[in-house]
Amino acid sequence: MSTTEPAIALSGLRKTFGAVEAVAGIDLEIADGEFFSMLGPSGSGKTTVLRMIAGFELPTAGTVWLSGRDVTRQAPYERDVNTVFQDYALFPHLSVLENVEYGLKVRKVARRERRARAEAALESVRLPGFGGRKPSAMSGGQRQRVALARALVNRPRVLLLDEPLGALDLKLREQMQVELKQIQRDVGITFVFVTHDQDEALTMSDRVAVFDSGRIAQVGTPEEVYEHPATPFVAGFVGTSNLLRGDAARQLIGREGTFSVRPEKIELTEGAGNGTVAEVIYAGPVTRFVVDLDAGARMVVVEQNRRTGKSTLSQMRGKRVQLTWQDEHVIEIGVNHAS
Amino acid sequence: MTLSPSARWALRAVMALGLFFIYVPLLLVLVNSFNGDRTFGWPPHDFTTRWWTAAWNNGGARDALWTSVKAGLGATAIALVLGTMIAFAVQRYKFFGRDTVSLLVVLPIALPGIVTGIALDSAWRSVIAPLGLGKGLFSVVVGHATFCVVTVYNNVLARLRRSGVSFEEASADLGASPGQTFRYITFPMIRSALLAGGLLAFALSFDEIIVTTFTAGPGIQTLPIWIFNNLFRPNQAPVVNVVAAVLIVLSVLPVWLAQRVAGPEAGASRT
């Protein structure tokens, strides 16, 4: 945060595997101390970008800078970054403590110091006293934290996380999201977090880059990305999009263009209206209604389950309804309202 | 799968018969090495350790044993180095002709020993001997190494397939140089595969006779060859029995060890 150089800068980054272009030209700057997420479906190139920052893949073209230094051709062990791998990659033949102190050991830190630092790192991820165990004797969530401690103990400038929560169940994942964010604030290290989970990206990040077919479709704060998606792809991938285009746009918005209204911004009232309920999906706290508009668009509406009186949910299917929304909640895609 | 009782009995009988024909003759050799009768009259009448003493004092047998050990160690050493290197190349890198290399490495174990033997013999005569390196112990070592490489290669390859590259990437990511990664991560993970492959290689070399016949230089006699040469000399027969008994024990040992070493870890691919 104090230095003027960005922690990571990528310029013109490309990577092809045979005939497949996995990364098709990325320009990006990530500030020091930022919690930055790379969000995208599998195969969108986000993990390849991460692996090029770590040094596991050599870019076909382009440059990787770490704190202003060109590291494009440097080996992984020459770079001041550490990675938390998707499968954790804890060394099975070493104990948890030996795993955590590995980075210090290969850098020739004296035995006593590295023991102390490794134990402190285990404490910081709430695993004190687990050092003697083998990784195989730990649960998924614990292994994940060991992997985090193993990376953080080296005090890297940048920590890369490759879908580190993917293997955990929902409850644990939500808990780890909070913990990760806390740890990042405590240590002040730049986190680059790769995920295909939009909730994860939105809840944890300072900024998000949305990847689409090897390119960055949009970079912005979670709010910008969600409220003002730059492309139909972003609108669809981050949240549910409810796209209005062509005829439907002309009739409902009154203008040419591609528009989107988020499901939670739409009001649904029964009675003669502008659409028919096609599907009702009960999801605990909320219910999702799929409504076919007469204007020729299919919209998803999310409603808190606070209905009283009116028809029961199962009776709603096939009913005529009126959908209404505020003008300010209409997103015109491709037009940036953010700045 | 459930089988009818009669089928189960039939299978048991076949298994017993198979094991009988494999192990009873071996047992016979062991018993006969203590048989007091020079012509191995059956059943044995008296017990003696005479032949064991005679074998111990037999200079030819002892020299042959020593030669076999040297050849086995030499072939195993070559197999360990080359087998490991090829396994790494094939498993970790993509290159032109990779599958061919893999096939060429495995082929010698399937090739009839007599073919390997003849080929090596003529190669040695026409190519290597003119360069000033005649046949001797070294040519035996090379001959054995051709098929010993396979055992190490297969063991290491299987281990590498299971462990993948992520551990090595993690090690490099944590700042370890390639040398450190090999020392702290890769080697410990393939150590038991190397041991298992090496023991099998030694066992293969130790009882090899055909390739040895064609590649041994003058005066080089491995133990199996010594046995073969002495088998039909009536006064040597009891000593041959003792040596065979020793060989049985010596060959069972490494195979048993290799299985124990490879066994417990083979099933568990832990992360």
From TrEMBL, chain A:
Keyword field: ATP-binding, Nucleotide-binding, Transport
A GO MF term: ATP binding
Organism: Paractinoplanes ovalisporus
Domain ABC transporter: 8-238
Record flagged with keyword Hydrolase: no
Protein's name in the database: ABC transporter ATP-binding protein
Origin: domain of life: Bacteria
TrEMBL record, chain B:
Membrane topology: Multi-pass membrane protein
Transmembrane segments: 9-31, 71-90, 102-124, 136-156, 193-217, 237-257
PROSITE patterns per UniProt: ABC_TM1
Keyword Ion transport among UniProt keywords: no
Subcellular location: Cell membrane
Primary subcellular site in the record, as a coarse category: membrane
Cleavable signal peptide: none
Keywords, ordered alphabetically: Cell membrane, Membrane, Transmembrane, Transmembrane helix, Transport
ABC transmembrane type-1 domain span: 65-258
The keyword Secreted is assigned to this record: no
Family, similarity comment: Belongs to the binding-protein-dependent transport system permease family. CysTW subfamily.
Protein name in the entry: ABC transporter permease
Organism this protein belongs to: Paractinoplanes ovalisporus
Biological classification of the source: Bacteria, Bacillati, Actinomycetota, Actinomycetes, Micromonosporales
